[in-house]
Amino acid sequence: MSAVSSVSASEGTSPDNPAPLIEPPRARTARTPKATRTNFELYGWVFMRLSGIVLVVLVLGHLLIQLVLDGGVSKVSFAFVAGRWASPFWMAWDLIMLWLAMLHGANGLRTIINDYAQRDGTRFWLKMLLYTATVFTVLLGTLVIFTFDPNIR
Amino acid sequence: MPAGTLYRGREGMWSWVAHRVTGVLIFFFLFVHVLDTALVRVSPEAYDDTIAVYKTPVVAVMEYGLVAAVLFHALNGLRVVAVDFWSQGTRYQKQMLWTVVGLWLVLMAGAAYPVLGHAVREVFGS
Ligand code: HEM
Ligand code: HEM
Question: How many CA atoms lie within 13 A of A147 on its CB side?
């Protein structure tokens, strides 16, 4: 019954003999591994949720325009794209959708690689492949929106 | 069910599996999609010839699959956000999943004609 109190009584802490300092859980110290010294994963978690909410509007709106309105996919052509990218509004829509969807998807895939790829080497190279493909796709898509030329021919 | 083969199982796990699978599918589609859109920088013909593939009946079925994936991922994603940020979220996660499934069924029924109609007309004539 009084085992706990008798133990703490026998320790006899006092100003001259203070209790050992206990770090709060997860406090960052010099021994914390580099990878967990920042709040990167927290920001990633928040980004997945905020970008997801915005993507609901952007991607579902995009699918509605491309697949449902105006005859669905049958109307899509170079001339149709030229008509849409004549408007800065749709250029901005596509640009934001491109960046958010690619970063959201890439961060999701990063999580999945971390979950399933167990060997350090495999995990490293899969992520390098993912990052390369992501940077390439985002830059290519951005370039295409900004350099689009309706009179290419 | 032998113990230890499933992580909890039931709605929570399966919706997570479906969220993961649909997320990966959409990402791979988006990669190809940015490449096909980039053909507008090559020539109008290169773009139109490639987009013609999107208009074939077989690909129309794949587009319906893409719509299914995007709709589930979007609706369930909002459910995940609600579970994380709404104080009653975890209590109602199951009801919210069935709401997601119900909405998904309704939207999929609505998308059937616009997405598949032209394919049906092409295959069966008229
Ligand atoms: C089969 C369904 C789809 C069709 C027919 C389609 C069609 C198009 C077309 C015609 C464009 C050219 C620009 C415009 O008109 O806005 C475009 C651009 C774009 N689409 Fe889609 N889309 C589809 C699905 C999606 C999905 C599911 C996503 C997101 C995950 C998406 C993301 C984008 C992005 C980011 C761009 C800009 C590309 C760039 O910067 O070069 N699309 N899409
Ligand atoms: C349409 C609106 C979207 C919403 C509301 C949404 C929402 C979410 C949320 C909340 C998560 C985090 C899940 C978790 O932490 O458990 C997530 C994960 C993910 N999302 Fe999305 N997302 C959307 C669009 C997209 C798009 C366009 C892509 C692909 C380019 C994508 C790919 C992924 C992937 C790969 C994951 C990781 C799945 C996992 O870790 O199991 N999402 N999504």
Answer: 12
Amino acid making up residue A31: R
Residue A73 Cβ inside 6 Å of ligand 1? The answer reads yes
B44–A63 C-beta distance less than 8 A? no
Chain A residue with CA closest to B28: the answer is A105
Whether B4 maps to a domain, the answer reads no
**Which CATH number does the domain housing residue B93 bear?**
1.20.1300.10
**pLDDT (tens place) for every residue of chain B, 126 residues total:** 455 556 777 888 899 999 999 999 999 999 999 999 999 999 999 999 999 999 999 999 999 999 999 999 999 999 999 999 999 999 999 999 999 999 999 999 999 999 999 999 988 886
Residues pairing with A14 in the sheet: A17
User: Which residues from B are below 8 Å from A67, CB to CB?
Assistant: 63, 67, 111, 114-115
ipTM of the complex, rounded to two decimals: 0.90
A91 lines ligand 1 (CB under 6 A): no
Distance of CA B20 to the CA centre of its chain: 11
- Please give the tally of structural domains in chain B: 1
Domains (range + CATH), chain A: 39-147 (1.20.1300.10)
Residues A151 and B18: their CA atoms lie apart, in Å, by: 44
CA distance B79 to B89: 8
Distance (Å, whole) CA B23 – CA A144: 25
Tell me the shortest Cα–Cα distance from A135 to chain B, in angstroms: 11
- Flag whether B59 is in a domain: yes
Domain that holds residue B32: 10-124
Ligand 2 — pocket residues by CB below 6 A? Answer: A 48-49, 52, 55-56, 59, 101, 104-105, 108-109, 111-112; B 19-20, 23-24, 26-27, 30, 73-74, 77-78, 80-81
* pTM given for the model: 0.88
B77 belongs to a structural domain:
yes
